[in-house]
């Protein structure tokens, strides 16, 4: 065959592959589960949990196996909706005012509305509840969220519907899925974006006893496992609704968790060390399932991906051209080149992804530059799992990220965060540790002394990244 014909056939093959992504604007459902870890799924090897519907999602989805999110809640949500690292849009904590997402950021629903999408969110917002920060003023036509994201309202919650309070009867997870599915049915004939963000299984751990009972005597926190089972049940209801409405093949369903594992890590943590709010792999790894029957072939991709890839990817899926200035601000990469095949030339193949637990006391950002932080590059993970070295930290303000850890370091008999001692193993103060996750996901073997060139390359990138952040002079908060 001539070179000319080979090029022609290659072009035709590419056209055939990408055509389904551009033929229609799919409905988009983005499911974000609060405090559920990568290991809290039976298909990921969990020996206790029964998750038939997450297992089904796993089986029917394109799975990005190495997906990084923030070690904590609000920051992940900020990056996911903005396409930028959470610190760049002002979210460095989960408390007021540092959970407020900058009003200068263009968010995912605003991008999708340019392509004619109807937009709605149901559940946990956690990015600001004051003035213009509320979700129905950030691009969502419909927003049903909780007043101040009160985690305690598991039963008969008072919700806020586009700014108006209303009480709903029932278990809150059921309520959110009910309302989301009602919205989906009402808008099934037009492209819609539905952001469904659960509060479950975040503490306090409460769920009807019928969900907890199967795990009593089998897990340290049976209530947590029961809450995961409750979410799983609702995932099944959502999948059934899409099928009954006849829109399965017209709907891209994405499922993720917002940070590393919590009360389930002692049962199973996918072979990783680490949990929520720390620097190890288990603190920031998320499952990332992309289900689009008829368009995305189920399978695996092992490239390093991240929470801030969601916006540029969905903009491409919806065929929304991003303004050049906006695109330049983004930290995320478009994942669509990876949809159909394992693209070795994907532009993000040499990326570095930074994570930081944040939560420093007001005015002390610089002394926390290296507190519970890390950076990914290929299969390498460079990290520091240690509190700040500032002796004044936590004396005048509750500093979750350092004060509690120093108490644990000084008194090892104290129960660890989530009772998971091995997941909070500390690295040497003031030193980087380097791990190769491809052979050591539990991060037992520090390679820093053996690979100084890798440490230098990655630590320089981290320093440049930190220097590029803009901090408020009074509060040392990112703008």
From TrEMBL:
Domain (Sulfatase N-terminal) ranges: 26-320
Cited Gene3D superfamilies: 3.30.1120.10, Alkaline Phosphatase, subunit A
UniProt GO molecular function: arylsulfatase activity
Keywords of this entry: Hydrolase
SUPFAM superfamilies in the record: Alkaline phosphatase-like
InterPro entries referenced in this protein's UniProt entry, alphabetically: Alkaline_phosphatase_core_sf, Sulfatase, Sulfatase_N
EC number(s) from the headed UniProt entry: 3.1.6.1
Entry annotated with the keyword Hydrolase: yes
Top EC category: hydrolase
UniProt xrefs under Pfam families: Sulfatase
PANTHER family from the UniProt entry: ARYLSULFATASE FAMILY MEMBER, ENDO-4-O-SULFATASE
Protein family (similarity comment): Belongs to the sulfatase family.
Protein name, as recorded: Arylsulfatase
Organism of provenance: Novipirellula herctigrandis
Gene: atsA_120
């Amino acid at each position: 065959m001539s070179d000319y014909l080979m090029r022609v056939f290659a072009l035709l093959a590419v056209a055939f592959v990408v055509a389904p992504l551009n033929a229609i604007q799919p409905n988009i459902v983005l499911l974000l589960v609060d405090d559920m870890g990568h290991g809290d799924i039976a298909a990921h090897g969990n020996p206790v949990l029964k998750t038939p519907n997450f297992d089904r999602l796993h089986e029917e989805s394109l799975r990005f196996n190495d997906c990084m999110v923030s070690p904590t809640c609000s920051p992940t949500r900020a990056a996911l909706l903005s396409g930028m690292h959470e610190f760049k849009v002002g979210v460095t904590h989960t408390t007021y005012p540092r959970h407020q997402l900058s009003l200068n950021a263009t968010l995912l629903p605003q991008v999708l509305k340019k392509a004619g999408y109807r937009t709605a969110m149901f559940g946990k917002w956690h990015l600001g509840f004051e003035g213009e920060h509320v979700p129905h003023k950030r691009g969502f036509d419909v927003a049903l969220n909780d007043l101040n994201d009160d985690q305690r309202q598991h039963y008969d919650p008072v919700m806020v519907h586009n700014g108006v309070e209303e009480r709903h009867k029932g278990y809150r997870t059921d309520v959110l899925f009910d309302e989301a599915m009602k919205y989906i049915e009402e808008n099934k004939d037009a492209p819609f974006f539905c952001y469904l963000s659960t509060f479950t299984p975040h503490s306090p751990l409460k769920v009807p006893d019928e969900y907890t009972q199967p795990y009593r005597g089998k897990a340290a926190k049976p209530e947590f496992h029961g809450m995961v089972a409750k979410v799983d049940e609702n995932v099944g209801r959502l999948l059934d609704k899409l099928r009954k409405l006849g829109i399965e093949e017209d709907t891209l369903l994405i499922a993720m968790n917002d940070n590393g594992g919590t009360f389930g890590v002692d049962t199973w943590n996918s072979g990783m060390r680490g949990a929520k709010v720390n620097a190890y792999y288990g603190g920031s790894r998320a499952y990332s399932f992309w289900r689009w029957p008829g368009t995305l072939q189920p399978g695996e991709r092992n490239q390093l991906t991240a929470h801030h890839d969601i916006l540029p990817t969905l903009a491409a899926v919806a065929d929304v051209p991003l303004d050049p200035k906006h695109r330049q601000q983004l930290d995320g990469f478009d994942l669509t080149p990876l949809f159909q095949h394992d693209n070795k030339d994907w532009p993000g193949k040499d990326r570095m992804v930074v994570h930081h637990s944040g939560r420093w006391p007001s005015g002390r950002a610089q002394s926390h530059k290296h507190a519970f932080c890390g950076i990914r590059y290929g299969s390498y993970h460079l990290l520091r799992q240690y509190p700040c070295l500032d002796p004044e930290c936590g004396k005048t303000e509750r500093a979750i990220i350092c004060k509690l850890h120093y108490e644990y370091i000084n008194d090892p008999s104290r129960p660890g965060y989530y009772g998971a001692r091995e997941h909070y193993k500390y690295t040497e103060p003031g030193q980087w540790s380097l791990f190769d996750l491809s052979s050591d996901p539990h991060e037992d073997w520090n390679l820093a002394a053996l690979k100084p060139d890798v440490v230098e390359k990655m630590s320089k990138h981290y320093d440049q990244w930190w220097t590029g952040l803009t901090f408020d002079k009074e509060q040392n908060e990112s703008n």
